[in-house]
Amino acid sequence: RSGMTGYRTGIVAGDPAIIARFHHLRTNPGLAPQDFVNAAAVAAWSDDAHAEERRGIFAEKRRILMDFLKGNGIEVVASTAGFYLWVRAPAGFDGPQGRGAAWAQHLLKAGIVTNPGGAFALTRCADDFVRLALVPGAEECRRAVEAWRGVL
Predict the structure, then answer these.
(1) Chain segment 31-78, per-residue pLDDT in tens
(2) In the chain, what is the straight-line distance between the N-terminal and C-terminal CA atoms, in Å?
(3) Within its chain, how far is the Cα of 31 from the centroid?
(4) Which residues contact 68 (CB under 8 A, 6 or more apart)?
(5) Angle formed at CA 52 by CA 140 and CA 144, multiple of 5 degrees
(6) Mean of the pLDDT values across residues 120-146?
(7) CA-to-CA distance for 89 and 99, rounded, in angstroms?
(8) Cα–Cα distance between 101 and 118 in angstroms, integer?
(9) What is this structure's pTM?
(10) Residue 126 gets which letter from DSSP?
(11) Are 2 and 50 contacting, i.e. CB atoms less than 8 angstroms apart?
């Protein structure tokens, strides 16, 4: 929510038996952030205005890409929040690692960097997808859409 990439903060709460099991499985790794991260988290979690601004920025980037993708009959799966879009590769892109990997290679030739969905799954369930990260700014997203038009 605050753009503190690599410095994740939060809380785990819930049923005491589940929390006890979680504690047993993950006693230390990732649960003891540095003091500067804790201080930054206090500031970030104490201010909702910057989070609202960031949600607006990500909504604009999502809208730019979603309008283009849906307008060209390209399926985006369940994306209403977050900073990733899961996009189903169109038919005609085949390869040993699936359609997503083949399509990612095709898009890379136009300067559009995506991640093959198969890189994020232990099974082949994501092989037909690419994952877009809404990291670039809105203007870069517009330029990506224009580049993408050239390789449809």
Answers:
(1) 677 889 889 999 999 999 999 999 999 999 999 999 999 999 999 997
(2) 33
(3) 23
(4) 145, 148, 149
(5) 10
(6) 93
(7) 6
(8) 8
(9) 0.79
(10) G
(11) yes
